[in-house]
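GntR family transcriptional regulator
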Amino acid sequence: MSYTVPPTRTAAVVRQLRNEIVTGELPPGTLIKDAELAGRLGVSITPVREAIAQLSVEGLIDIAPNRTRHVTKVTQKNALELIDVMSVLACAGFEWGVENLTQTHIDLMRQRQKEFVEGLRSGNVLAATAAGADFSTIAILASGNRELQSMVDLVVARTNRILAMSAESNLWDTWITGHDEILELLEAGNTAGALARYQRIYVEYRAKVEQDLFDD
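Structure:
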């Protein structure tokens, strides 16, 4: 994922609203009002409307036939389906790229893992999410398929919004442990084992989401 300074006001509004939705600051069902958002963010109506349209495409905002807009509501079915889609896309990218990883790639993945853990320890979920996503991005981009990465980014943003995990959520443990073990396997030159461990992260993650968030 790219977290550089947005080049336009619309991009800045998209990032701000996406972050607020992902972190739960704007919870599911929240009514989105153009003028109210424009005033709060200090921009005109146009970039706000363009941002809402973009976030609607991403599945973060629902636009009703009467044109009212709400933050997309969460359902168990939607959450698990998104995880399944994310698994298919990310695992395909990791499989295509893992054989192309160099020591430089692995060192960068280790750095992102460190930032991931540090972000969670400091309670900065957005920084942790970005670093955690970059861990996978490094391997996926090593495949040379940037189109796939853009699709992964889209699904990751929607999945994170639906789960809206706090820094204390035990769901992060699945990723922390998985990443650490993947790095050990890569350092040992065991790319097949690293791929299998990466795939297992999604199996474990899905099971924990279903049990911990939807057990009642």
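The mean pLDDT is 87.
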